[in-house]
Amino acid sequence: MKLSRQITVLGSAIFCVVIFSLYLMLDRGQFDQPKSPHREGGFPKGQLSILQEKIDHLERLLAENNEIISNIRDSVINLSDSVKDGLKNPEAINISRGSFSPLLPSAPALLPINKEDCQFAPVSGSQKSDVQMLDVYDILPFDNPDGGVWKQGFDITYDEHEWDNEILQVFLVPHSHNDPGWLKTFDDYFRDQTQHILNNMVVKLQEDKQRKFIWSEISYFSKWWDGIDSQKRDAVKKLIDQQQLEIVTGGWVMADEASPHYFSLIDQLIEGHQWLEKNLGVKPKAGWAVDPFGHSPTMAYILKRSGLSNMLIQRIHYSIKKHFASKKTLEFFWRQNWDLGSSTDILCHMMPFYSYDVPHTCGPDPKICCQFDFKRLPGGRISCPWRVPPEPIHEGNVEHRAWMLLDQYRKKSKLYRTKVLLVPLGDDFRYSDSSEWDQQYQNYQKLFDYMNSHPELHVKAQFGTLSNFFEALRKTTNIDESNSPSFFPVLSGDFFTYADRDDHYWSGYFTSRPFYKRLERVLESHLRSAEILYSLAQVHVQRSSKLQAFPSGEHYKLLTEARRNFGLFQHHDAITGTAKDWVVVDYGTRLYHSLMNLKKVIVDAVHVLVLKDKGTYIYNPSAPFFSMDDVQKAQDALPQKTVIKVTGHPRSLVIYNPLEQERTSVVSVYVNSPKSKVLNAAGKTIKAQISAVWEGATAMSPDTYQVSFLAHLPPLGLAVYQLVESRDAESVKAEYTVFTRGRSNKVLSDGIFHVNELDNIVTDLTIENSYLKLLFSQTSGLLEQIKLKDDGKTHNVKVGFTWYGTTNNRDKSGAYLFLPDGDGKVCL
Ligand SMILES: [Zn+2]
């Protein structure tokens, strides 16, 4: 912050110096210019070259000036670079052409509506599931014993002949987990890692048709797509056609499943799916979520309704994983709690071990599995923490190594009901170097060739996409054939709160960085409002030639950009609050920038909608027709309410209802006069209340007041009211009773409001209306009793505040974890 201020000051100083010298140069240039154009021919040669030099010099100054202005703009607002993806990256120079969809109607997105979905949680509950998560928590001992090589599990044994009649099918699924921001910003990760991963992918998958790869984050994929040529794009399409590359989930990000509203989850999924449909003609079939911190059935429902049939989840409490492994319920149909039938069922694979990295995905023993992560070969940048490195596979060791790996595969398969096994192969930002592709794919191909050419091993191992695995799984269990009994158990419930070990519960992130969690919700409502208003305005624009000045294309881009910034923030290190500080500022700047743009779209769309005579429409971006009722000055600043200057001339106040229902609600705005009154559209004065705006416990603002009134709003509609200052304003003035309890500072009031100051309360402190009466504690001010007036019953209430300390252990509460030192202590 300090640094950026210094840069700003320095930049401004340089800017001033340049402008001043530029001015001087122009000033002098004028002296040197011929007084009359007729004298041009008689200009001495020497003077001409001097003039030429001066013009050159001026041009250089102008260029420098432009650069300085752009630097200042960048350092002060820090917007254009971080928001308009691709400017930093030379490969993605054309976001506006490639990334944004033209203003053309999309293919109609018709989704079937199941009648059952419209029934709200019936009283009788759900159809019985085989596994109900609420019951599982009662069964688990949460004792966390040492499980041996599989620390959080148990010893796995098998009979060598188990696969004699039905071979083990192994699908090794290479993947690269790309966080759209965490330790680096989205753009920096893209520049340093992601673009290289995707570029190498195109080359390396083409080398051998047996090679497979999956990708999930469309935010990255679309940014990369914008910067590649048509030849590369064709190669990608071919890889998808040949099922070597599969797009999994297809969301803008791999979204967090605890903090976002379901609207946001759907919105980021639509953004990704629309992009895929328009650019690749792809509809994802399987979900892939290896890193979100706990899993929600809402996500399962959204995926199912988005046309996906299968999904994979990973970060689940270790005790649940162990329990499910022992019962062989790691693969199940996930059903909504309220579903009376089976229409919400989606086939779900839960990964059994600690992590999605290679040491924890081939089988139960990480020391063995790590030796099959060929990026960790000796001499590389990373090694195995279990101190046994991988060996390159060659003729001399392939038999032994294949056996070691097959043993892990067999043990892992014992945790599932079928002989179809999924083995992910990847980690964070893997496959960025070309050599890593060779190391993994070549060594594994040697192992697979060996395994597959030895029938006595009863195994078929291959690279696979996620859908290759699920197709084989469905085939082996005949679950897609009608009348076949369900092979997998049905599960209902959720997988919160996640713990990866001991008492490390990941509930800290539920409340990390609350400022940005709130900003996301504000952007969400603005985005929804802007989309509806823009669509309504667009209907008028298309009908009327008088509205052609309306910036349809420009605002469409702003809406798309806002949806993408909003979608980006649903990432499991963004809305969770677990990214580094500078990454948080990057997200905040994107949200803030889009909020500003959405306000612009809202203001311009409403302008079109409220104009009675469309012929008078003029689009002037420097003088917007409306201003919004609050202003946020920076990405990390709190919004301030706009104070409306009310005079004798009525001022219009337009209120928008983004809901599909008619609403009657209290609307409050700030005004500069206590003599304000509110008129409805018919010009009739309506009931209003003027209240003080408090600037502290005992100070009222001397020049700002709040006017509140009941507004009636049509569904998805606008209502116009008017504010006017009037000597005989009939608005009701609020009255205040301030309990000073012996404090010396008196309430500062300008006499407009009646203020009753109480040193001591002799009677109960109560608030009441015609429905209820509330009683508060005289000492703490907290609610103690509620009396309902219709039945006369009194209900005692206890409100308290507790605080938690943090442990003395090495691991402490933080952005991710909530690790208290014991029970909460009452503090109020
Ligand atoms: Zn992640």
From TrEMBL:
It comes from Engystomops pustulosus (Tungara frog). The chain crosses the membrane at residues 7-26. Belongs to the glycosyl hydrolase 38 family. GO terms for molecular function: carbohydrate binding; mannosyl-oligosaccharide 1,3-1,6-alpha-mannosidase activity; metal ion binding. Keywords: Glycosidase, Hydrolase, Membrane, Metal-binding, Transmembrane, Transmembrane helix, Zinc. The keyword Iron-sulfur does not apply. Its cofactor is Zn(2+). It comes from the Eukaryota. Its EC number is 3.2.1.114. InterPro entries: Gal_mutarotase_sf_dom (IPR011013), Glyco_hydro/deAcase_b/a-brl (IPR011330), Glyco_hydro_38_cen (IPR015341), Glyco_hydro_38_cen_sf (IPR037094), Glyco_hydro_38_N (IPR000602), Glyco_hydro_38_N_sf (IPR027291), Glyco_hydro_57/38_cen_sf (IPR028995), Glyco_hydro_b (IPR013780). Coiled coil: none annotated. Residues 504-591 form the Glycoside hydrolase family 38 central domain. It catalyses: N(4)-{beta-D-GlcNAc-(1->2)-alpha-D-Man-(1->3)-[alpha-D-Man-(1->3)-[alpha-D-Man-(1->6)]-alpha-D-Man-(1->6)]-beta-D-Man-(1->4)-beta-D-GlcNAc-(1->4)-beta-D-GlcNAc}-L-asparaginyl-[protein] + 2 H2O = 2 alpha-D-mannopyranose + an N(4)-{beta-D-GlcNAc-(1->2)-alpha-D-Man-(1->3)-[alpha-D-Man-(1->6)]-beta-D-Man-(1->4)-beta-D-GlcNAc-(1->4)-beta-D-GlcNAc}-L-asparaginyl-[protein]. Catalyzes the first committed step in the biosynthesis of complex N-glycans. It controls conversion of high mannose to complex N-glycans; the final hydrolytic step in the N-glycan maturation pathway. This is mannosyl-oligosaccharide 1,3-1,6-alpha-mannosidase. GO terms for biological process: mannose metabolic process; N-glycan processing. One of its GO terms (cellular component) is Golgi membrane. It is an enzyme of class 3 (hydrolase). The keyword Metal-binding applies.
